[in-house]
Specification:
Urea ABC transporter substrate-binding protein, five-stranded parallel sheet, signal, alpha/beta, Rossmann fold, 416 residues, single chain, 2 domains, Peripla_BP_I
């Protein structure tokens, strides 16, 4: 009888042990694809969150507690993102989630965060046309990436393009971005016959016929440029085929919104020299903040044996946006004295952080987006980028594009 009572007590104690442990930590959810077509881009963001958590913990954590990461793999499966978000919030009881890359994954989880009044920090450029109380968007809105990039292509310095190929992966971000860009091009006098629009599925690998079609479209007399919203591992065969068919930047420049240093890792960049990417950060930017960020990442990647990065550490724009987001969240928790969602949202307004880009990033007081500088870089032979254009300073995000007529009168702040 005594033995049974002891066993029962032990079993009861074991039931309460996880809860006791959880009370001593603040759980942080990490919701990035570690397998599937988006793993090429998202895996490194998981590691960026873990690095930032280690840094915060080394300084004593938050509110007297250490941060405890809870990592899940939604596996580039959009409905699974919602299931994993529910698990993080309801079962794991995380205080915040850092995650998603594609807009379809963000749209999948959005109802979960709104229904549970939980917080998501989303670190990737996107199409705008959304504003949620429960999301902080630390990547670029269209006026902080897509619009400046096309304006550059139309300028004398950018080649004075008169025809445009809008080429993307077939989902919400490329289609909505291209809807905005088509309306913008119309406002600049570009007619529909001078705009070619093409989409390929996730994981697409055969770009031979599409590149041939682009070459034919560009041979019709007007200077042509390609705007690429291809996402994930399809970028590797796309850029390889550009090289195979000899489509040089001097003939038809390609500006990409989802290709950075990480995506070019597996590509021979020499045939791609001069092609462009538009971001709010490049690894090649020289300043003390970026030098420190690169060193932190290099040391962390080597210490943790991170595949690819332990030998060739690379940083990129979504890593910077992730790093800004978690540090701003930590600052807001300290200011609020709590991880309560509504208190943290209030404390996030106006938060600033010296970003690796060298710019003091500011979270807008109302619209849950960062004020960000825009950079356009040319691909170099080593897979890095040479910055050829930048804005004079940070640009305030416009979540609702002014080029979409139905956006007229929409408020630039989320509903309470």
């Amino acid at each position: 009888m005594l033995r049974r009572s002891a066993l029962a007590l032990a079993a009861a104690a074991s039931l309460f042990a996880p809860a006791a442990f959880a009370a001593d930590t603040i759980k942080v959810g990490v919701l990035h694809s570690l397998s599937g077509t988006m793993a090429i881009s998202e895996t490194v963001l998981k590691d960026t969150v873990l690095m930032a958590i280690d840094e915060i913990n080394a300084k004593g954590g938050l509110l007297g507690k250490k941060l405890e990461p809870v990592v899940v793999d939604p596996a580039s499966n959009w409905p699974l993102f919602a299931e994993k978000a529910k698990q993080l919030i309801s079962q794991d009881k995380v205080a915040v989630v850092f995650g998603c890359w594609t807009s379809v994954s963000r749209k999948s989880v959005l109802p979960v965060f709104e229904q549970t009044n939980s917080l998501l920090f989303y670190p990737v450029q996107y199409e705008g046309e959304e504003l949620s109380k429960n999301v902080f968007y630390t990547g670029a809105a269209p006026n902080q990436q897509a619009i400046p990039a096309v304006e550059y292509l139309m300028s004398k310095d950018g080649g004075a393009a008169k025809r445009f190929v809008l080429l993307g992966t077939d989902y919400v971000y490329p289609r909505t971005t291209n809807k905005i860009l088509r309306a913008f091009l119309h406002s600049k006098g570009i007619k529909d016959e001078d705009i070619m629009e093409e989409y390929t599925p996730f994981g697409h690998s055969d770009y031979q016929s599409i590149i041939a079609k682009i070459k034919k479209f560009s041979a019709e007399g007007k200077k042509t440029a390609v705007v690429s919203t291809i996402n994930g591992d399809s970028n590797v065969p796309f850029y390889k085929e550009l090289g195979n068919q000899g489509l040089k930047a001097t003939d038809v420049p390609v500006v990409a919104f989802s290709v950075g240093e990480e995506e070019l890792r597996g590509v021979d960049a020499k045939p791609l020299v001069g092609h462009l990417a538009a971001w709010n950060y490049f690894m090649s930017i020289k300043n003390p903040a970026n030098d420190a960020f690169i060193k932190k990442w290099s040391d962390y990647a080597k210490a943790k044996g991170i595949a690819g990065h332990k030998d060739k550490p690379l940083t990129n724009d979504p890593m910077e946006a992730t790093y800004i987001g978690i540090n701003m969240w930590a600052q807001a928790v300290k200011k609020a004295g709590s991880t309560d969602t509504d208190k943290v949202i209030a404390a996030m307004a106006g938060q600033t952080f010296t970003a690796p880009s060298g710019i003091t990033s500011k979270m807008d007081e109302k619209n849950h987006h960062l004020h960000k500088s825009v950079f356009i870089g040319e691909v170099k032979a080593d897979g890095q980028f040479n910055v050829v254009w930048k804005t004079p300073g940070p640009v305030k995000a416009q979540p609702w594009s002014p080029y979409i007529p139905e956006n007229k009168g929409k408020k630039d702040e989320p509903a309470k």
